[in-house]
Write a structure and sequence with these properties.
The protein is α/β, with parallel strands linked by helices. The chain has eleven helices and six strands. Keywords: DNA-binding, Phosphoprotein, Transcription, Transcription regulation.
């Protein structure tokens, strides 16, 4: 795949370039500041963009803003956003459009090569890749919502769904059958008032939209 990297830390940036090149991918451009990001994406129109949230000159949300702008200019552009810490507002804003091909990882995850590459591939395939810590933060930030009615096992399944895992992976992780996973997913959707769906990232994003924004079921699904 062709990738654009936007990261102001030179060591991390070059490390990702080497990592992706060694994995058989092509880094077509790199950016070290916010203003460089969108022009690079529009020029190269890559298969994926890996962007730091906070970049020069302001070190606020320049990378995120560039990602959102690029998604408007290039609908469906797969974007994997990196952050030093769990920043709930940024994760929520990134997911708000209800479209797939999005990921949000903590930078520590880059050092876990297989996890990083797997996340990038899932995003390019149109799925989601949310860091487990990000999912945990999003799922626990609200009180008195339907997620409280889930059993511990259903919470585990929802957590893995939100990370973008498919039924086979969930079954293997929890050491249960795929039939059991399907049953748990059905229960999750029923308790959250969401229609069951087998469309992978669409169902995950519907759940995330519900948890993050309180978006109605119809709104979350109609955006797909």
């Amino acid at each position: 795949m062709r990738v654009v990297i936007a990261e102001d830390n030179a060591l991390l940036r070059e490390g990702m370039v080497l990592l992706l090149n060694s994995a058989g991918h092509e880094v077509v451009a790199v950016a070290s500041s916010g203003p460089e990001v969108l022009p690079a994406l529009l020029e190269h129109r890559p298969d994926a963009a890996v962007l730091d949230v906070r970049m020069p000159p302001g070190f606020r949300d320049e990378g995120l803003r560039a990602a959102l702008a690029a998604r408007r200019e290039i609908p469906g552009l797969p974007v994997l956003v990196l952050s030093q810490y769990v920043e709930e507002t940024y994760a929520t804003e990134l997911l708000a459009d209800g479209a797939g091909g999005l990921g949000y990882l903590l930078k520590d995850r880059v050092g876990r090569v297989e996890e990083f590459l797997d996340a990038l591939e899932r995003v390019v395939a149109g799925g989601t890749a949310l860091d487990p810590e990000v999912v945990k933060e999003l799922m626990t930030r609200r009180r008195d919502d339907p997620v409280d009615s889930l059993t511990p096992r259903e919470r585990e399944v929802l957590h893995l769904m939100a990370e973008g895992r498919d039924n086979t992976t969930i079954a293997r992780t929890l050491v249960v059958s795929e039939r059991a996973v399907s049953k748990h997913i059905g229960n999750v959707f029923a308790k959250l008032g969401l229609p069951p769906s087998d469309s992978g990232h669409r169902r995950v994003l519907a759940v995330l939209a519900y948890l993050n924004k309180g978006v109605g079921v119809g709104e979350a699904v109609d955006k797909r």
